[in-house]
Amino acid sequence: MTEIAGKSGTTSGATGLRAAVEAYWATADARDWEAFAATLSADVVYDLPQTRERVLGKERYVRFNQEYPGDWSVRIERIVADGDGRQAAARTRFTVAGEEMPAVHFFSFDAAGRITEVTDFWPEPYEPPAGREHLVERY
Q: In angstroms, rounded to a whole number, what is the distance separating the alpha carbons of residues 91 and 9?
């Protein structure tokens, strides 16, 4: 489901954002890292407030996802986008080891429709898995 906020009667920006968010999740779920990278700006910033981690730049963010431990799948439940084509939010369900968990994601975009910022919120605070210190900053 997509909702559009902003300019009345203007859906092209929001429609483009929906497609960008869908491509982001589809390529991540398929582990198509080249296509996933194409959805991102070179200076993308990824924030995980619950683990107090931040990943800076496309190369590190792609590696962060490539190296993420375990098997998982994602299903998009809802996408809300602004009519100006700069921000979107998505609610998803992740399945990890047979367990489902909800998540909420906020996206910002550049003028070309590439993702410049992603902030993920998961149901509970947690300590990050070991082994990704080379890709993240803690705050």
A: 24
